[in-house]
Amino acid sequence: MRDGDAPVFEPMNNRRDSNRLLVRHLLLPTIFLTVALLGGLRVAAETGAFLFLAPPLVALVLAVLLMLLFARGGLVNLRAWFTSDHASLTNVSHALTLLALFFASAQAFNSVLPESGLFRWLFAFFFLWTLWNNQFAHFDARVTLRSLAALFGTAFVLKHMLLASIYAPDGGWLKRLAGALVEGVTQGTFGVQESFAPATGYISFFTLALYVLGLILVPSAPDTDERDAPQHEATSLVSRYRQLPDGERALLREEILRTERGRLEDEIHSTRTD
Less crowded by CB within 10 Å, the N or C end of the chain? Predict the structure, then answer.
C-alpha cells in the first residue's frame, strides 16, 4: 500500500473509535439507567396509575452475586476497566457504568420477583441457588449470556404468565386448577398477590430485553481493538486452562500433543512424497 493511501483509512478508524466511545460512555449508561427505572414500574389494574416499587433486599444480594459471575465469567474484566493507564475521568466513567449495571441487575430481578408471599421466596431461592452454583462452574462470556437469558426468561414466564393468570380476577380454568392442586393450603400461606394491569407484563418484557441487549454490548475490556481480539482470546483460553483441575489439564495436554504429533507426521510424510 502506498503512503498516500494511508489517510484514506484513517477516517474509518476514527469513526470506529468514536462509535466505541459512544457505546461505552453514552449508550450503555442510558440502557442500564432505563432498565433501573422500568424494573420497578407497575401499572395498577383498577386505576391504571403508574406505581414504582423499590427493589427488595434480596434483589440487591442477587445483583451482587450476578456481578461476581460477570467478573468470573469474563463478561467484565475489572482489571481492564480500571487501570492506571486510563485518565481519572475515564475510570470514573467506567465506575458509573458498572454502578448502573449493578442497579439495572437489581431491578431486572425486581421485575420478575413476585411482590410478596411465599412465591417471592421460592423465586428468590431459585435465583440464589442458581447463581451460587454458577460461581463454581466454568463459564465464558457467551455461556453466561445464554444462561442469564434462559434464567430471566423462565422467571418472566412463571410470574407474568402463570402467576398472573392464577391471581387474575377472571383467571378461568388455570385458576381453578391451581386452586384444586393447593386445596387445603390457606391463601395466607402463599400471600395475597396484588394484581396489576396486563401492561405490567409488557413493561417487564421490554425491560428484560433491554437488559440483555445492554449485556451484549458490554465490552469485556473497554479499550480492546478488534485487531487485538485473537490475543485476548488466547489470554482467556490460558486463564480458563489454569482454572481446570489437574486431571483435566493432563487430558488436555495429551490431546494437544496427540493432535500436533499427527499434524507433524502428516507434514513430514507430505514432504517426503514431494
Answer: C
Residue with C-alpha cell 390457606?
186
Paired strand residues for 51: 42
In a domain, 266, yes or no: no
Cα diameter, the chain: 85
Distance CA 86, CA 96 (A): 15
- Report DSSP letters for 214-243, one per residue: HHHH--SSTT--GGGHHHHHHHHHHHHHHT
pLDDT at 59 over 50: yes
C-alpha cell at 268: 513430514
pLDDT in tens, 176-192: 555 544 444 444 444 55
* Cβ within 8 Å of residue 61, ≥6 positions away: 128
Query: pLDDT tens, 132-188?
Result: 888 887 767 788 888 888 989 988 988 888 777 766 655 555 555 555 444 444 444
Domain that holds residue 182: 15-227
Residue 85: predicted pLDDT: 76
b/e burial code for range 48-85 (CB count within 10 A of at least 16 → b) = eeeeeeebbebbebbbebbbebbebbbbbbeebbeeee
Question: How many domains would you assign to the chain?
Answer: 1
